[in-house]
Amino acid sequence: LEYFAVTKENRGTGIGSLMISMLMDYLTVNELIIESEDPSISIDEKEKEINQKRLSFYRKNNFKESGLKLKLGDVHFIIFRYHNQLTNDELLEEIKAIYHITSPNMEILAY
C-alpha cells in the first residue's frame, strides 16, 4: 500500500480506523510501516495541524513511533510501526529496500 487517505468530507467519521482495523484483521505480516510527515518541519501552521492530526490518527489506531525520523527525498517523516518485530536497523534496511525498488535514486537520510 503506497498511500492511505480519507477524503476531507469523510474524515472524522471512523472510516479510516475501520479500514486500518479491516487491514489488520486480514493481513499476516511481520511488520507494518507507516511514514507520516513530521509536523516540526511543516511550512506553515495549517500544514503543521494537518500533520499533527495524522500522527494522532496513527497513535489512536495502535501504531507506535519507531524512533526513526527519515528524510525521504525532500520530505521529512516520522516512522510508525504496528508489530515492533524488527529492530530499528532492520526497519531502516526494509525501508531502503522498498525505496530501492520504487524510487532507486531517492536519497534516504536519518535525522
Write up what this structure looks like.
The protein has 111 residues and is of the alpha+beta class. 39% of the residues lie in helices and 22% in strands. It is built from 3 helices and 4 strands. Strands 1-3-2-4 form a 4-stranded antiparallel sheet, with helices on both faces. Strand 2 and strand 3 form a beta hairpin. The longest helix has 16 residues. The mean pLDDT is 92.
Topology:
Elements: H1 15-26, E1 33-37, H2 45-60, E2 64-72, E3 75-81, H3 88-102, E4 108-110
Radius of gyration: 14 Å
> Alpha-carbon distance between the termini?
25 Å
Largest sheet: 4 strands, antiparallel
**Which structural class matches the secondary elements?**
alpha+beta
Total number of strands: 4
Runs in which pLDDT lies below 50 for 5 or more consecutive residues are none
Task: Give me the number of helical elements.
Answer: 3
What general outline do the C-alpha atoms trace?
globular
- What's the SSE pattern? HEHEEHE
What strand line-up does the widest sheet have? 1-3-2-4
Helicity range: 25-40%
**Overall pLDDT metric:** 92
Tell me the β content: 15-25%
